[in-house]
């Protein structure tokens, strides 16, 4: 229902002017915003955040607890440079400028920025022009004014219309707050996409290098098996061994050769994925084989949980809570009257030659109010929906924090346990190589058959491949840990946190 208080026309009286003055005074003096003011919810519903993670290698991780304060705007830097790999640095630079998912996230950020402008536009009067020309004929038998005479005439109108909502209850302010929070969330989403891209490039690159190293091990072993087959064939010609030994040596060689195409296929798939991450065609993208790096960052014992505040996904989730809270205020404002200041000014004439003459001017100005008297429960339903959406974002925020703790704890455990496993596997590899040496000496001395040599060779190959795979997994765990804490850590920051 819209109630018109009055209008200022050419012959308007003092009453209408007074009504306008009262309404404008209300707009100037009122500064309230209905709906709840935002307060950041606790990251965990039933307990505060711990000050440090419980890494298996750490024994002194207990200290004062603190409330999370998301700070995704803190610099992360080129964290991948801790691996000291020039080719990885190059790929990260290419992916950062050419990746299309990152470009899409940047476009979404610009869209969110524009939404702020859309919301802020309601702070200002909306002015539009609607010139029109009509030629019309009146009825000679029109009701009440019937004169048995019809009239045909032109009507030229050149008006400017204005409408301005006086934000008495803060509806527009809440909309702007929501848009700004959504924009901040989109900015954090862009950082999340960038961090995920950087980690994925590193993971694929190390996977590629692991496959290169594994293929080198298999290729070297194939050459060893080929020499073993030649030796066995020569011993068979001399009558020292039987055809069974020759057959076993050849079977071992051919089955190992069959593993090379499988490794090449895995490498091709990883290479194609890396090409897509770098925004390049998989057809022409190439990467020369190279060694698996052994450089890995040393994870401090007792990584502080404050580092999670740098995770952009946590910051984005918290900003969406703020946006949802502001939308509650927008829903509450629907229960209050909407006050508008409307006006029009322009020229009207029956002839175009007199359209812009001074006597042809027309104008009107006055406030109007829309009162929500009966809406069939729509406003209550929209408010309930806004509150439910707020609770959903709070739960999502807390779930994001819990998932972040899980990811960091998982990777800290992986970093510690993989290091222990790699140490044991290194000892196992040394033992397997020693066993192979003994088996070869015994075979050359004619003490054992080739089956014992083949078994020792298979064990040594499996041990060496397991060692290479564990090295790759260790590097993957380091990358995942850096990603989980939001993009690395700095010694100075750790010292500051410790204080």
Write up this protein.
The protein is 57% helix and 10% strand. With 499 residues, it is α+β, with helices and mostly antiparallel strands. The protein has a single domain, classed as Outer membrane efflux proteins (OEP). Strands 1, 2, 3, 4, 5 and 6 form a 6-stranded antiparallel beta sheet that branches. Helix 2 packs across helix 4. The longest helix has 67 residues.
Entry summary:
By secondary structure, the protein is of the alpha+beta class. The protein has a single domain (38-124, 169-336, 378-498), classed as Up-down Bundle (Outer membrane efflux proteins (OEP)), CATH 1.20.1600.10. It has ten helices and six strands; from the N terminus they run βαααβββααααββααα.
What is the gyration radius calculated from CA atoms?
Answer: 38 Å
Give the total of beta strands: 6
CATH architecture: Up-down Bundle
Distance between the termini: 62 Å
Q: What is the strand content?
A: 5-15%
Could you report the average pLDDT, rounded to the nearest whole number?
A: 83
Pairing-aware structural class of the strands and helices?
Answer: alpha+beta
Indicate the CATH topology: Outer membrane efflux proteins (OEP)
**Can you count the helices?**
10
| Poorly predicted segments | 1-30, 57-68, 491-499
How is the secondary structure organized here?
Blueprint: E1 2-4, H1 14-29, H2 86-98, H3 100-120, E2 126-129, E3 132-137, E4 152-166, H4 171-237, H5 243-257, H6 259-277, H7 312-333, E5 338-349, E6 361-370, H8 378-444, H9 450-484, H10 491-498
Antiparallel strand pairs: 1-6, 2-4, 3-4, 4-5, 5-6
Helix pairs in contact: 2-4, 3-4, 4-5, 4-6, 4-7, 4-9, 5-9, 7-8, 8-9
């Amino acid at each position: 229902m819209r109630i018109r208080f009055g209008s200022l026309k050419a012959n308007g009286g003092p009453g209408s002017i007074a009504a306008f003055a009262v309404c404008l005074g209300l707009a100037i003096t009122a500064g309230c915003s209905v709906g709840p003011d935002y307060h950041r919810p606790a990251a965990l519903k039933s307990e505060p955040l711990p000050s440090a993670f419980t890494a298996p290698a750490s024994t002194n991780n207990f200290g004062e607890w603190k409330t999370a304060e998301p700070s995704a705007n803190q610099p992360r830097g080129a964290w991948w440079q801790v691996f000291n790999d020039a080719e990885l640095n190059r790929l990260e630079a290419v992916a950062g400028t050419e990746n299309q998912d990152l470009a899409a996230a940047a476009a979404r950020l610009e869209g969110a920025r524009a939404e702020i402008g859309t919301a802020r536009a309601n702070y200002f009067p909306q002015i539009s022009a609607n010139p029109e020309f009509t030629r019309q004929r009146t009825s000679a038998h029109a009701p009440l004014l019937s004169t048995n005479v019809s009239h045909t005439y032109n009507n030229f109108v050149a008006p400017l219309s204005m409408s301005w909502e006086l934000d008495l209850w803060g509806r527009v302010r809440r909309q702007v707050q929501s848009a700004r929070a959504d924009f901040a969330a989109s900015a954090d989403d862009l950082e999340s996409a960038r961090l995920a891209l950087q980690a994925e490039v590193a993971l694929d690159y190390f996977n590629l290098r692991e496959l290169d190293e594994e293929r080198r091990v298999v290729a070297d072993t194939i050459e060893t098996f080929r020499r073993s087959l030649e030796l066995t064939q020569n011993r068979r010609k001399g009558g020292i061994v039987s055809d069974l030994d020759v057959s076993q040596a050849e079977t071992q060689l051919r089955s190992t050769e069959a593993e090379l195409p499988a490794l090449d296929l895995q490498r091709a798939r990883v290479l194609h994925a890396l090409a897509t991450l770098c925004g390049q065609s998989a057809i022409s993208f190439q990467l020369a084989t190279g060694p698996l790096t052994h450089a890995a960052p040393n994870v401090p014992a007792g990584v502080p949980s404050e580092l999670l505040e740098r995770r952009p996904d946590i910051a984005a989730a918290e900003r969406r809570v703020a946006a949802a809270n502001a939308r509650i205020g927008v829903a509450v404002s629907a229960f209050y009257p909407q006050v508008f200041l409307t006006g029009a000014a322009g020229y009207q004439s029956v002839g175009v030659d007199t359209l812009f003459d001074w006597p042809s001017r027309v104008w009107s100005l006055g406030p109007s109010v829309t009162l929500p008297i009966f809406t069939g429960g729509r406003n209550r339903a929209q408010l309930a929906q806004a509150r439910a959406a707020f609770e959903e974002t709070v739960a999502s925020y807390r779930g994001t924090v819990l998932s972040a703790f899980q990811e960091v704890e998982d990777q800290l455990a992986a970093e510690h346990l993989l290091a222990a496993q790699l140490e044991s596997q290194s000892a196992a590899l040394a033992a397997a190589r020693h066993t192979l040496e003994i088996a070869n000496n015994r075979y050359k001395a004619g003490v054992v058959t080739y089956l014992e040599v083949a078994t020792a060779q298979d064990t040594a190959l499996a041990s060496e491949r397991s060692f290479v795979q564990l090295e790759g997994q260790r590097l993957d765990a380091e990358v995942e840990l850096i990603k989980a804490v939001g993009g690395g850590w700095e010694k100075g920051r750790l010292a500051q946190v410790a204080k």
